[in-house]
Amino acid sequence: MMRVYWQILRNEFKTLLRAKWVLGYGLIFLLLTDTLFRFAGGGTEVWVSVSNIMLLLIPIISLIYGLLYIYQSRDYLELLLTQPVNRSTLFWGLYTGISAPLTVAFIVGSALPLVWHGGLTEGTASQLFLVLTLGSVLTFIFVGLGFVMGLWFYDDKIKGFGFSIIIWLFMAIIYDGLIMVVIFLFGDYPLETGIIAVTMLNPLDLARILILMEFDISSLMGYTGAVFNQFFGTSLGTIASLAMLSLWLVIPSWMGLRVFKKKDF
Amino acid sequence: MIQINQLTKTFGQLKVLNDLTLEIPDGQATGIVGPNGAGKTTFIKTLLGLVKPDSGDITISGIHLNGNYDYRRNIGYMPQQARYPEQMIVSDLLDFIEDLRGEEAIYKQNLINEFNLQPELHKQLRVLSGGNKQKVGATLGMMFNPRILFFDEPTAGLDPRSSFIFKERIQKENNAGKTVLITSHIMSELEQLVDHVIFILEGDIKYYGRIDKLLKENRQERLEGAIAKLMEEPIQ
């Protein structure tokens, strides 16, 4: 079983690297960090900017890539499924085989400029770690969502793309908009606890807040920032956000696995 | 031996396989015919575990298919159209499937020579012609020397020479005692390759038996005529 898994994983790595665009994806982050180092001079500013771009790019690219992979590999999936392999093993092999190279491209691309710019000080090490970890987790989450969409709308690509874009729009933009509306309408009430709970339901918001906390930008957010800090700054907050992120890691892949195991190909 | 018992599959409202019960003995060469959308491909895919039946059961070589996957070691399958990862190199694909199964493909070189794939081996799959992709598909299906072979419209994209080589190969496999199952729209081809035929119409088996018997019953010289006649009969 493990052998089969590694074979699939290795093959996906090979195929993706040959496709070259993954290298391009890594290159984007490399150029980004490098440029930021040159202009912002290193330190916190670099990683704040990287995290902003990452929060924008990673979800949409991972989502679309996961979706496209399913659509482009239909016959290949058939070939693999007719081999004496277990569907679960196959699923994990493909899922991690797609997510891992993207993650590696992101990590290497973002961190490589450190080699010639130096700039890794004690203060920025934990920031760098957080940005890279969140980027990796988001890659896995959104590739998983892409897989789910692709498997769900296996024969209806338009719907698959449509719903994927909606998911992304919702999580990246609309969700925050709705929170703003709620805050605007019910600003007279003590909403902070509720808002904390609601933000934790969206992995992008969760990532954004963790970054805000780490970079101490929360002080710019006045009272809300203080409330956020009070919660996310504590060990309970850390544990809760880690738990929510792990849950977000598990849910799409688990759903994907379930659909994959039952699906008629 | 392939035993199928009350196999039923519906896609939404459409009943694709309707309570099929049949037995295919070892070593038999069987053609599956029927109009487009009759359920031929679904039938083969169900045997392969690609499609999960709603009810009924399938036993292949004594193994009951129930989430089981190792039985596929005995089955070679060549799909209707073969599109593989475009960037992949032919020899890498063959090697990968070998590694995946942890099994030596004993007929690999033999099939590569027979299908004249040697010059294509180091090319990416996307630059291969449709016919050559078919040949790669056929190689993948047969290279592990499985006891049971499924071919879905195998010669559709092949030129006459490749088609001839391919058919000779199937006959050889069948003579060696392999169970062969072929779907095709080319009746003359089936006459050459198989002696039994399953005629599926709207998910039901309209006929299953020897071809010569079918010809005699319908007073036809050729399979094509006999099948055409069967199709004209009103559906009960």
What does this structure look like?
The complex is a heterodimer of chains A (265) and B (236). Chain A has helices at 2-18, 21-40, 44-72, 74-81, 87-111, 113-117, 122-152, 157-185, 192-199, 203-214, 222-232, 235-262. With 265 residues, chain A is mostly helical. The longest helix of chain A has 31 residues, at 122-152. Helices cover 84% and strands 0% of the residues of chain A. With 236 residues, chain B is α/β, with parallel strands linked by helices. Helix content of chain B is 34%, strand content 26%. In chain B, β1 and β2 (14-24) form a beta hairpin. Chain B is globular. The interface between A and B is medium-sized, with 26 and 30 residues.
Helical content class of chain A:
over 70%
Mean pLDDT of chain B: 88
Strand order of the largest sheet of chain B: 6-7-8-3-9-10
Strand content of chain B: 25-35%
Largest sheet of chain A: none
* Helix proportion range of chain B: 25-40%
Largest interface: A-B, 26 and 30 residues
So how many helices of chain B? 8
For this entry, what is the oligomeric state of its chains? heterodimer
The amount of beta strand of chain A, in percent, is under 5%
Enumerate how many helices of chain A there are, as a single number. Answer: 12
List keywords for this structure.
heterodimer, B: alpha/beta, 10 strands
Compose a concise summary of this entry:
The complex is a heterodimer of chains A (265) and B (236). Chain A has 265 residues and is mostly helical. Chain A has helices at 2-18, 21-40, 44-72, 74-81, 87-111, 113-117, 122-152, 157-185, 192-199, 203-214, 222-232, 235-262.
